[in-house]
Design brief:
α6 (257-275) packs across α7, α6 (257-275) packs across α12 and α7 packs across α12 (420-433). The strands form four sheets. A seven-stranded mixed β-sheet has the order 5-4-3-2-1-14-15, covered by helices on one side. The chain has 17 helices and 19 strands. β4 (91-100) and β5 form a beta hairpin. By secondary structure, the protein is α/β, with parallel strands linked by helices. The radius of gyration is 26 Å and the shape is elongated. The termini are far apart. It has two domains: 2-254, 4-Layer Sandwich (Nitrilase/N-carbamoyl-D-aminoacid amidohydrolase), CATH 3.60.110.10; 259-507, 3-Layer(aba) Sandwich (Rossmann fold).
Length: 535
Amino acid sequence: MLTLALCQMRCAVGDIAGNAARIAERARVARTAHQAALIAFPELALTGYPPEDLLLRPDFVAQAQRALAALAHESTDIDLLVGLPWAEDGQVYNALAWLHAGTVADVYRKQILPNYGVFDERRYFSPGRDALVRTVAGVRVGVTICEDLWEPGPVAQCAAQGAQLVVNINASPYHRGKAPLRLTVARERVGASRAALAYVNMIGGQDELVFDGASFILDAGGAVAARGAAFAEDLVVARCAPSGTVAEGSCAPWPEAEAELYAALQLGLADYVRRNGFRTVVLGLSGGIDSALTLALCHDALPDVTLKPVMMPSPYTQAISRADAQAQAQALGLDLAVIPIDKLYAAFAEALDGQWQGPGHALALENVQARVRGTLLMGIANAHEGLVVVTSNKSELAVGYATLYGDMAGGYSPLKDVLKTDVYALARWRNRCSPVIPQRVLERAPSAELRLDQKDSDSLPPYDLLDQVLARYIEDGWGRERLLADGFEAPLVDRVLMLVRRAEHKRRQAPLGTRVTVRAFGRDWRYPVTAAYEA
């Protein structure tokens, strides 16, 4: 029997020495606490994923290979499968090094290089061609890397060389619905190869990407024998026989839909703030739903960070907005700074007198309020060497219902990939855990409060309808004709698509935010700002 350990761990991009130290420590734990003979780590575990153009620096790749050699020298009593970039004969490969008895015994080179969505691997890597299968504790073990699992060839190559177990190492970014999709594909490979399969995934946030872990082991019949936690570091251990049977290990439960999404947002935000060294986070608290959910998320994700919520009422801010913002801050045990912007707003308007009497005058007056607020938040953050967290959502960013250098000003946007209807769903779920968002915030009609009695519905279709169109257009790739065929009315479709097109220049200047859908505004949305095409 082979005792196998899968280590789903954080792997910080660029921290080669730190990643190597954490790999060595987890290998010791797997060996001493679990008597594991083989431990697998995530894809590019030594460098973190994705290292992007760091891979174009020969010194970066060379440093990773030197760290691997040192790691091999330390690890003499357990076989390690470690992901890293591997330079050889003028080529660089996305590779898996098999460490055995203090040496780099073999290297597997990833064959299927993804070049879609958030992936750019053909920019950096050459593809491998050959399978790698070795025997450990009497079990023939083949190895593959991430995308190799999504096409049948690499696993079939392992099976042809007698593999009884295939280990697939991953840096597979999360999006909603990804976990069952992975499991379906893995079961297809098991069914074709009749080999057990172990899937180890990274966890943690890296800029806009978040990795959910949720590693698993399938026996040769496709049954889940063990599964790691979602959105947390874990060590998944199981015993595998040459027949492909796997003794059942622990199986962490998968969270419900809102809990899953909230956990992804927490992890993405927490790792961005932590890895970039921020100790203070500043955000505008308006009394509305988006800032309310963002504050709750910051409170839950950043227990060791100083949170500074700031209320900046204007002449159009309703008293109930002030009261609700104060109530939420109090419920979370936070001090709310209140900075009225009436005089600043008036001063801006006076300074611009005679310069802005154009067709956009009324909108410009509204936007001045947002820009005053953005300036104040940035000033507070600068004074405390902190980060401004933006509170807007995907629906607003999609249609441009946001002010450049105003409410879009900041360093990170946790709800950037969350539609407005999902904001409400998450807020209701969070209140079921403990009531920290005032009920009135959930019930009031949303408003930017930049003019008297303003409501979002004055400028936009109802969010439940708008979000249906946006999800199909952005995430599912539907065009106008398919939207019409699905029953959406032409005036609605044409208006929404026009707004999306016109807002591209704003999205190019938006801060990073956690990606939680199959297509977010970021790495996997690369539309030209200047284009005549109408979808």
